[in-house]
């Protein structure tokens, strides 16, 4: 059994999809305190900060798993979770017809080891259909998602090329975690 220290439904879905037994608890960490404009550093520091907060709150008797995800545009702009529908429209419009990277960092700590991994999945999207985008905005499914993006949903039909795991893009590179989670089961 491991503890997913995250409020993310997407991360819980991914662990379930891979048949990993877990309990889910939320963790409070203010990502606004992170001062960097480098996306890979941002997610690493956020994931590390969440782990430190989880250790303080839950102890370390159970293996703790934390993660953070952002989108980086081709220009290096960090796109986080949209603040509102207007922000979602702005952020998603930046991704339309563009190349982006979804970067996820995980921290997985047990009594025996600390595993960390920062991975990216790179997408080239076709231009989003305006009416389709408006319908997606109306659906509010973009809420709580880095860049308002759903690679398995709204964005899927626009994918012209992809390089990397879909799980990384959804917020948790489970394939990279699996060997370490298996170790814990021994
Ligand atoms: N379903 C889906 N979720 C995505 C996608 N891209 C990013 N996400 C989610 O976007 C969220 C990024 O915000 P984070 O700050 O990393 O995590 P959170 O949801 O706030 O949850 P915490 O771990 O409690 O901080 C995560 O829940 C990711 O799982 C995607 O393409 N599909």
TrEMBL record:
Protein origin, superkingdom: Bacteria
GO terms, molecular function: nucleoside triphosphate diphosphatase activity
InterPro entries referenced in this protein's UniProt entry, alphabetically: ITPase-like_fam, Maf-like
Listed GO CC annotations: cytoplasm
Biological process (GO), any one: nucleotide metabolic process
Active site: 68
Reaction(s) the record says it catalyses: a 2'-deoxyribonucleoside 5'-triphosphate + H2O = a 2'-deoxyribonucleoside 5'-phosphate + diphosphate + H(+); a ribonucleoside 5'-triphosphate + H2O = a ribonucleoside 5'-phosphate + diphosphate + H(+)
Keywords tagged on the record: Cytoplasm, Hydrolase, Nucleotide metabolism
Main location: cytoplasm
Name recorded for this polypeptide: Nucleoside triphosphate pyrophosphatase
Organism: Sulfurovum lithotrophicum
């Amino acid at each position: 059994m491991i503890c997913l220290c995250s409020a993310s439904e997407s991360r819980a879905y991914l662990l379930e999809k891979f048949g990993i037994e877990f309990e889910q608890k939320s963790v409070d960490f203010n990502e606004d305190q992170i001062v960097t404009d480098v996306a890979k550093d941002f997610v690493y520091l956020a994931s590390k900060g969440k782990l430190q907060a989880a250790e303080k709150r839950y102890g370390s008797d159970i293996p703790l798993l934390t993660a953070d995800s952002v989108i980086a545009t081709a220009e290096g702009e960090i796109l986080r979770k949209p603040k509102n529908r207007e922000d979602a429209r702005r952020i998603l419009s930046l991704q339309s017809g563009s190349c982006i990277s979804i970067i996820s960092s995980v921290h997985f700590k047990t009594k025996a080891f600390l595993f960390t991994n920062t991975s990216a999945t790179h997408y080239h999207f076709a231009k989003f259909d305006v009416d389709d985008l408006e319908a997606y905005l109306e659906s509010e499914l973009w809420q709580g998602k880095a860049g308002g993006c759903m690679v398995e949903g709204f964005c899927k039909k626009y994918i012209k090329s992809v390089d990397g795991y879909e799980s990384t893009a959804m917020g948790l590179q489970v394939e990279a975690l699996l060997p370490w989670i298996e170790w814990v089961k021994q």
